[in-house]
Amino acid sequence: MSKRDLFRLESLKKLILYILSRKPDEFGLLPDKDGFIKKKELIQVLHEEGFGFARESHINEIMMNDGRDLFELTEDNKKIRAKEIEWDVELQSPIMNVPKLLYTCIRRRAYPLVLEKGLFSSDESYIILSESENMAIRIGSRKDQKPILLEIRAQEAIDHGSIFFKFGILYLSKWIPNQFISGPPIEEEYKDRRKEKDREKKDKIKESFGAGTFYLKPEKKEKEKKGKKKKGWKEEVRKARKKKYLDFF
Asked: What is the C-alpha to C-alpha distance for residues 139 and 105, in angstroms, rounded to an integer?
């Protein structure tokens, strides 16, 4: 391995250690109850931080060296955590004082349902919110290239039964009623989606025709001239029989 590659791997290790052991919330990451973070999510963060070369193979390479003293993996090799951590996820005590407005992002396809039913999370996950629009978009962009940014009237939601927790600079919740959620007009969103779909269809059509190809127009069949139909063999037989009969007399 070249000196350049060794230097990049060492820099990568140091950033991973900082993220996992000290400030996962600073990067919009929420560890699970055992402190593990999915490798896939970690790699997305590394790319955001300028380490675009980072792949799972680099994490595995770090683990084969001195990384074993710093990190540990789950049995299925899909999650990673630091052996020593300086943070704690305290989700037993809800907080009552939250900012007036918080932000979160969702997938575009989920937008109509969210406006109708509100935001819900599964048993083991949470809705992740932030005071910063940029952080909300950063987190949302990991699941959708063009996520929908939602504005949450958090304090009003608490007054009507929603429960919030805090993890570092992030806010967490399990349920937010739809009346406290605001986003872009759904009509405009659908228009944008229709335009994108039309553009995608045109691009696919263009891709299906390579350079030098051209359309062939089907030849039009000339219409048969109207008139008497050509006599069939049965009519010819009848005519012959009739002539023979007349000649007989």
From this structure: 7
- Distance, in Å, from the CA atom of 83 to the CA atom of 15, rounded to the nearest integer, reads 15
| CB neighbours of residue 101 within 10 Å | 15
**Looking at residue 163, which CATH number applies to its domain?**
3.20.170.30
Where among 187, 210, 228 does a domain terminate?
A: 187
Output the furthest CA–CA distance in the chain (Å, rounded): 125
Which segments within 11-115 are labelled E, that is strand?
A: 37-38, 71-73, 79-82, 101-106
The per-residue pLDDT for range 104-160, each reduced to its tens digit, is 999 999 999 999 999 999 877 899 999 999 999 999 999 999 999 999 999 999 999
- What is the pTM (predicted TM-score) of this model? 0.73
The alpha-helical segments, DSSP class H, found in 94-232 are 111-117, 133-140, 154-159, 186-208
Extract the tokens encoding 231: 């006599």
